[in-house]
TrEMBL record:
The keyword Signal does not apply. It is a multi-pass membrane protein. This is Putative ABC transporter permease protein. Residues 20-241, 448-631 form the MacB-like periplasmic core domain. GO terms for cellular component: plasma membrane. It comes from the Bacteria. It is found in: Cell membrane. The chain crosses the membrane at residues 21-40, 294-318, 349-371, 391-415, 436-455, 674-698, 726-746, 758-783.
């Protein structure tokens, strides 16, 4: 019997090759999307769970509340928390401090920038990273030891045995030899800690004993290993009292000098929760921090695509069922029972699902590089064959087979044998289920189209809006420390390059600080150290006052320039000559100018109060080069040569400022592409379903079309008649989707302080696009039915 069913299934697939291909391809697309998202989700939830002691591993976190009520959560601590809590809390087995840094490495005449991490010497005893060479207990004991990964060892030593080799690392102002004492295996891709170069914490601390004054200087991650069977909540409950006792003197000094409010609470965060936690984040040496919402969104998209694919399978199967009506009638007349017919059609469904699964695996292999790029992952095709994933896919296969085959099996097995054998069988009813499914499909498609258009408009706005300054033709060169007294000579050398129009500097990185205004108000603001050419180079306009003048000693000694946001926050009506009091170092500055607000950070952040100084006691580490028009490419090689001469022990690093600003929106760019691809797939699969319904409608109305043609109806009239009902449903979908999409996109845009306004044209464009696509999909079947010879459809009447 099963052999007979199998042969019939293959014959039916072969006889209807086009429809079978459409059915299999449509389902395989949905399945491929589902497989990719399962891979993504599995990778997300497997982060950091390979450590043997991960259930006992935690990170110390802190929560602070400012006087104005703002709550700040962080996973960063000071130097003292780890050793102090370890000594006072018996449940703690070990602590480990972990802090990212960077070194300049010299090999002969070559210099390299190298990221590195300071760690305590028990690193390989706490974490389960493999140590390929060296002793885990002693590999980081010596201050000037270093552990490398195989890729870094090959970079610096080629094919030589790296163990015992030395590297010259710039420590302070001097290069010092460090000995390679171990080689660690490369980190798994699903690890928050990505190994590179490990250096003992002893070298950071130097020869001085650890003072009890590093409680408030938060700069590193501190991990805690608890003893087996310990309740981490009970251990963490002891932290605050220890902190308030041991840090009392430092807290008192901070209150006196900085008006610092002591309202800090320490807690423990499970190490395996760091990756998907958005409250504390993965920072200062921890990588790949993620947002669980991304996984939920992608999983939702995959689920929707799979459901739509199953709906299409149902519609196409039912649409082709009239061709098999006589087969079903004969089977029933010769004694075939309904359960046998259900089993046959379910078997056909599972066979089609199996073929779809095979094709889906092929699609996954093709799409995986693109998916990795979009999701910022490094997933491998071999991950598909993980035992747990195979069970998940088996479950998806069974569920898909049942969802896609059950309804058609019930419908087809219920045909009346007499009507089918005499050719009198007709589908009756309004087909509310099929129509409802069609509306559901195109509602989702409309939602995704609107989302794609809005996200694209917001992304274009973020990358094209006027920033308030001119970043065109500007390159950034990062350097080592440049003293202000040496800067004029360096600037003169750079300006000798004919392609360079202008140069300026700042301190590099982001600096934030606090000062007092109006005698009693403490203000937080962004702090920039610049020269007198910084504002002119970027063409930042002044609202009042003037720029720094190096010929006026007070400008560089005690003058500051502020932005409009600073003036507004300070509440000044006439800001010129107002005083900014850096009370903690007894320095007072006078405002000599006010500039217009400009976007110094990404447009995902509000413009902060900003203050500029040109004080000679500071130093610079970032040079900005303004090239002449169309001379940027030609000037870069000359700039590199001059910089290597000026900074011989500093690796040359150049980036275009326009490119740097654009890259601030990598996340938005990825989601624009992800939603865009999802929209295309949803529309494609929905149109396949619409094609199936159009086929069903044409077959239902074959004789009606024949009669209309006999009575003189033209092809356009018949096409319009067949298309009208479907177009109404599609337009209804757009009408349902529009208010939902407006609400969702309005809420999403609130995440951006600078954003577009929702426009009715987006919804009109979506309605027009979805209607056009639907008509083109229906038109093929409608024209084909209208062109058929009416004699064929009416000869049995």
């Amino acid at each position: 019997m099963f052999r007979n069913y199998f042969v019939i299934t293959l014959r039916n697939l072969w006889r209807n090759k086009a429809y079978s291909a459409i059915n299999i391809v449509g389902l395989s697309i949905g399945l491929a999307c589902c497989m990719l998202i399962v891979l993504y989700t599995k990778d997300e939830w497997s982060f950091d769970r390979f450590h043997q002691k991960q259930e006992r591993l935690f990170r110390i976190t802190n929560t602070s509340k400012s006087p104005d009520g703002n709550v700040r959560k962080s996973g960063i601590t000071g130097l003292m928390q780890g050793p102090s809590f370890k000594e006072a809390v018996p449940e703690i087995e070990a602590f480990l401090r972990y802090s990212s840094t960077g070194f300049t490495i010299r090999q002969g005449t070559q210099v390299f920038d190298q990221g590195a991490t300071f760690v305590d010497d028990n690193f390989f005893e706490v974490f389960s990273f493999p140590l390929l060479k060296g002793n885990p207990a002693t590999v980081l004991k010596e201050p000037r030891s270093v552990v490398l990964t195989p890729s870094l060892a090959k970079k610096y030593f080629g094919d030589k045995d790296p163990l015992g080799q030395t590297l010259e690392l710039k420590n302070g102002e001097n290069f010092e030899p460090f000995t390679v004492t171990g080689i660690a295996g490369e980190s798994p891709s699903n690890s928050s800690i990505q190994l590179g170069m490990l250096i003992p914490f002893k070298i950071r601390l130097g020869d001085q004993p650890l003072l009890n004054e590093e409680w408030l200087n938060y700069s590193l991650n501190t991990f805690i290993l608890l003893k087996p069977g310990t309740d981490f909540r009970k251990a963490a409950a002891k932290f605050d009292k220890i902190y308030q006792t041991l840090a009392a003197e430092e807290i008192k000094k901070a209150k006196e000098q900085y008006n610092w409010e002591d309202n800090v609470h320490f807690d423990l965060q499970p190490f395996a929760d760091i990756h998907l936690n958005t409250e504390y984040g993965a920072a200062n040496g921890l990588d790949h921090g993620s947002d669980p919402r991304y996984g939920y969104i992608l999983s939702g998209i995959a689920f929707v695509l799979l459901i739509i694919a199953c709906i299409n399978f149902v519609n196409l199967t039912v649409a082709r069922s009239l061709k098999r009506a006589r087969e079903i009638g004969i089977r029933k007349v010769v004694g075939g029972q309904r359960r046998q017919l259900i089993a046959q059609f379910l078997g056909e469904s599972f066979l089609l699902c199996l073929l779809s699964f095979v094709l889906a695996v092929f699609f996954v292999e093709l799409a995986l590089p693109l998916f990795n790029t979009l999701s910022n992952k490094a997933l491998s095709f071999s991950y598909l064959f993980d035992a747990k994933l195979m069970l998940t896919y088996a479950g998806i296969f069974l569920l898909t087979g049942l969802l896609a085959g059950w309804y058609p099996a019930l419908v087809l097995s219920g045909f009346n044998p007499v009507q089918t054998l005499y050719g009198k069988f007709r589908f009756t009813g309004k087909n509310y289920l099929s129509r409802g499914l069609l509306v559901f499909q195109f509602t989702l498609a409309s939602l995704l189209i609107i989302a794609t258009l809005v996200i694209s408009q917001q992304f274009r706005y973020l990358t094209k809006v006027d920033l308030g300054y001119d970043d065109s033709r500007v390159g950034i060169v990062s350097t080592s420390r440049i003293e202000m007294a040496k800067w004029p000579m360096i600037r003169e050398e750079l300006l000798k390059i004919p392609e360079i129009e202008s140069v300026t500097v700042d301190q590099g990185g982001y600096w934030g600080t606090v000062a007092r205004v109006n005698g009693n108000k403490d203000m937080q603001f962004d702090f920039k150290i610049v020269d007198d050419n910084y504002l002119p180079l970027f063409r930042i306009p002044f609202v009042s006052g003037r720029n720094f003048n190096t010929r006026i000693a007070s400008d560089t000694a005690s003058g500051v320039i502020v932005n409009e946001a600073f003036v507004k926050e300070a509440g000044w009506k006439a800001p010129l000559n107002e005083t900014v009091d850096f009370f903690y170092n007894n320095k007072k500055y006078k405002v000599i100018g006010v500039i217009k607000d400009y976007h110094s950070a990404a447009l995902t952040q509000k413009i902060n109060p900003q203050l500029f100084v040109a004080n000679p006691t500071y130093s610079y580490s970032q040079v900005f080069i303004k090239f002449r028009k169309d001379k940027m490419a030609a000037g870069q090689p000359k700039l590199e040569a001059v910089c290597k001469n000026l900074f011989p022990f500093q690796p040359y690093s150049f980036v275009s400022m326009e490119e740097k600003n654009f890259n601030q929106y990598d996340s938005e760019a990825r989601w624009q592409k992800i939603i865009g691809f999802s929209t295309i797939l949803t529309i494609l699969i929905s149109c396949i379903g619409l094609f199936g319904l159009a086929t069903l409608a044409a077959e239902k109305r074959t004789k009606e079309i024949g009669i209309r043609k006999v009575l003189g109806a033209s092809v356009p009239v018949i096409v319009r008649t067949l298309s009208a009902d479907f177009l109404k449903l599609v337009l209804l979908s757009a009408a349902i989707a529009s208010p939902i999409a407006w609400w969702a996109m309005f809420r999403w845009l609130q995440n951006y302080p600078y954003r577009i306004e929702l426009n009715w044209t987006v919804f009109a464009l979506t309605t027009g696009l979805i209607g056009t696509l639907a008509f083109l999909t229906i038109a093929y079947q409608a024209i084909r039915a209208a062109m058929d010879n009416p004699v064929k459809s009416l000869k049995s009447e």
